Predict the 3D structure of the following.
Amino acid sequence: MNGSVPVDVTYELSTEDAAYLLNAGVASEVVAKLNDIIENVYTSYDDFQDDLIAAIDTPLTQSLMPIIIPIARIVEYQPGTVLEGISGSISHNASNLTIGENFTGNIDEIRIWSKARDEETVKYDYKRLVGNDADGIAGYWRCDENFGNYIYDASKSNGEFHKNNGAFNGNTWSTTIPNKNLLGWMGKADANGFYTIPYIPYFGTGENFTLTPRYEQHEFEPGSKTVFLGEGAAILDEQNFTDISSFKLTGTVFYENTYCGVEGAIIGIDGSPV
């Protein structure tokens, strides 16, 4: 893209945001009313607020705004024209790499990859901390030091750290921390329900952490688990959760291409009748 400085902000509530609201204690019937605006993209704060009011009443919208606005996905838009291709080469030399020149703001989680990544993977990894030995990671600066004038490269291959450490040039540390919906520890279950959270740091000899499963408006048993990570327990397996969600389903079953009803039709979930 041939773009310019970001000039616009959009608002969007995702299914993950809805799950967060449930976990934050917002009533399930209130969250259900937001379904009509989930994944809608709003270029105006007023339009976003108006649709919230239309979905739930005005007083409730006003009381929930302090919770909803911080988690609504904010996307900076760069106007420009899409280019069919870019010609040229990326030089491979020992010159210094400059990050954030002429930039004003906060930077966290800087990653450089040595292999192309598809759109789905980029979207998934964008909001989570990844392992420092992830396949293809060439440079990884977490920016968590909070002291001194350097950020340290956490990336490694075959057990060896890459050591591409960075030096500050007029930068300062910030106490601003992204909320957990912008950046956090998470793992996404695959088709078989297996998930991995690759990197969870802890202080001292270890800490307790809470694992919470989320998927749209589903309910799980247990709702969360407290686990210990630390010396002697750096890897935890068999942290299982069962989806106990139930939904009301109504409707009519017809034979294909007819209006003739099917008598005694059986509805199945994952091949099992219900």
Notes: The first strand starts at residue 2 and ends at 3. Residues 2-81 form one domain.
